Automatic annotation (TrEMBL):
It is an enzyme of class 3 (hydrolase). The keyword Hydrolase applies. Its EC number is 3.1.2.-. Keywords: Hydrolase. It comes from the Bacteria. Residues 61-134 form the Thioesterase domain. This is PaaI family thioesterase. The keyword Hydrolase applies. InterPro entries: HotDog_dom_sf, PAAI_dom, Thioestr_dom. GO terms for molecular function: acyl-CoA hydrolase activity.
């Protein structure tokens, strides 16, 4: 087997893993509550595009912090889990910073793996509004669980 074939097979395996993670995200019941879509284009990177509606507003008429946390955590999580093809990761810690309130409209959560490969991985994420302004930022620590990805109903590889 040539080196080119081995690289092509690895690339196909990674792409299948990314599509399976996207399927896993879509299958989670919590995500039925949000107009959102995950895409993973490369190892260690993820993007979630979602829409803010009045349904997630706090009393002062802007998006509640829970939506910031959920999308920041998910983007960082999937960036990290794109690096791990056998186990489901668990969030063990997450820090977030609110930069700007957001009302209705499209928002993009961008996740990026920072470090770690074996047991603990670190990833960061940021939220960007339609004007291109950063509205929130977070950093998470994720640990390998005993849960195999292949055993999860939404993960199809």
């Amino acid at each position: 087997m040539s080196g080119a074939n081995t690289l092509e097979q690895a690339s196909q395996g990674a792409a299948a893993h990314f599509r399976s993670l996207e399927s896993l995200y879509a299958s989670a019941q919590i995500n039925a509550l949000f107009d959102s879509q995950l895409s993973i284009a490369a190892e260690g990177q993820s993007v979630i595009e979602f829409t803010i509606t009045p349904a997630v507003y706090h009393a002062a008429g802007a998006a509640h912090g829970t939506i910031y946390f959920k999308m920041l955590d998910d983007a960082a999580f999937y960036a990290a889990n794109s690096m791990v093809s056998d186990r489901f990761l668990l969030t063990t810690a997450f820090n977030l910073h609110f930069t700007k309130p957001v009302k209705e409209g499209k928002v993009r959560a961008e996740g990026k793996w920072i470090s770690g490969h074996r047991r603990v991985l670190v990833a960061e994420s940021r939220l960007v509004d339609t004007e291109g302004d950063e509205i929130g930022r977070g950093t998470g620590t994720f640990m390998r669980s005993h849960i195999g990805l292949s055993g999860l109903d939404g993960y199809h590889q």
